[in-house]
Amino acid sequence: MKITSLLMIAVLLSACSDRGQSVTDFKDYESYLSLSQAVSSGPVNEELKFWSDRLKKNNDDASLIKLGALYSELFKETGLAEHIVLSDSLYKEAQKRNAEGLVEIYQALAANAISQHKFQDAKEYAEKALSLKDKKSASLLLLADVSLEIGDYARANQILRQFKNKRSFAYLIRKAKVKDHEGMLDSAIVCMEQAYHRVRGNKALSQWALSNLADMYGHAGRIEDSYAVYLNVLRNHPSDDYSLKGIAWIALSHDKKIKDAKRIVNTLAARNRMPELHLILAEIAHLEGNTLEKANQLKKFRSLASVPAYRPMYMKYLALLEAEEFNNASAAVSMAVEEINNRSTPQSFDLLAWGYYHQNKFKEAFEVATKHVENQTFEPEAFYHLGMIYHANGNHEKGDQYLKEALKCRFELGPSTTAKIAAAIESL
Question: Is residue 201 part of a domain?
Fold first, then answer.
């Protein structure tokens, strides 16, 4: 549903306000930083050895499929792209041996493609799985996931309406995503909370649900709740880098504890698993006034994220950097077009409009933004871009309205972008 009133947008975004006192305490998470840099994946490695030995001995399909699943699991644990690339190759080898194809393999390849942000490939695999008419529910859920990622929200809703059990974990987590897209963050949180309560006995699924809840609480301005949930995840899974990264962002963006945030992120960066950590280190360097270190961290991120296996996952950030930091708006536009071909969401079109803005093609930016972005996303970053684009096209009143709405989400945007918006409001 499109919302055309900026007043309604203001109501929806009021939860983004991040007023409050410091919530993080270094003593709460210090022990998790002293863990070995090695990922706690002993059981997985033992299974890998068993199935690798069996494959060498028997060269059987079952071993290929099991190894594919294990390397996919290892990717989720480590974030290392080499693991999911290997997983894909094992699944595809198994698929070659089965002329008609196996539904489980198409489903696994679809899930892998979603993880890698190769959404058109994911759609093709999910539709092939569905065509085999076996394990149809799992294939439909994958199609719902892909539809949400590529901006086909009508199809995602149509698929979800087919499911009778509206209380299942599988249904609730996808309904949460739909609600979030529609700007109904409170409803999305309720869905995710219900999903978590459905799987509290399942360690892996409950950890996933809690991590997502922590993110959503942060976006809703519930910073204390977000922090508490991240700590809860770490108590049960001490090597969860994602939760530590979330705490680092709270320390930096909400508490303004630059030293604590830097210590967390440097620890995580040493594990070489998350290229985006260098973006946070660049933000920290900017706040410290260290221009050289900021440039160094941005270049590190660009180098890591530009590797073919990672590039689709980080296309958004690469495009933003080319436009904003590297003075290469034409590259940003090319990346945005590539991203639109992969997923034609409002956020992808926002990248294109922002690229045009940095090329000083203000009319083109306005046309894209008003047709494909405005009233179609509730992301504060998109509101910031809309504000600047409206100003560039002479509508200062509406530009200011969007900038002020974006400014309500200081925590999500971070200190540097918040400062840019505040400066723009003062000067424009």
Answer: yes
How many structural domains are present in the chain?
1
pTM of the model: 0.91
Half-sphere exposure of 345 (CA within 13 A, CB side): 21
Per residue in 415-425, pLDDT (tens digit) is 999 999 999 99
- CATH assignment of the domain containing 169: 1.25.40.10
Which residues are within 8 A (CB) of 50 and not within 5 positions of it... i.e. 6 or more apart? Answer: none
- Range of 210's domain? 165-238
CB burial class (10 A; 0-12, 13-18, 19+) of residue 101?
middle
* Cα 241 to Cα 139: distance, rounded to the nearest angstrom: 30
Instruction: Tell me the C-alpha to C-alpha distance, in Å, between residue 68 and each of 100, 109, 205.
Output: 19, 9, 20
Q: How far apart are CA 187 and CA 206, in angstroms?
A: 19
Single-letter amino acid code for the residue at 363: K
Phi-psi label, residue 79: left if phi above 0, alpha if psi -120 to 50, beta otherwise: left
Instruction: Say if CB 405 and CB 6 are below 8 A apart.
Output: yes
110-129, pLDDT tens digit by residue?
A: 999 999 999 999 999 999 99
* Number of neighbouring beta carbons within 10 Å of residue 120: 13
Residue 68 is assigned to a structural domain of this protein: no
The answer to whether residue 132 is domain-embedded is no
**Distance in angstroms (rounded) separating the CA atoms of residues 70 and 66:** 6
Q: How far is CA 231 from its chain centroid?
A: 20
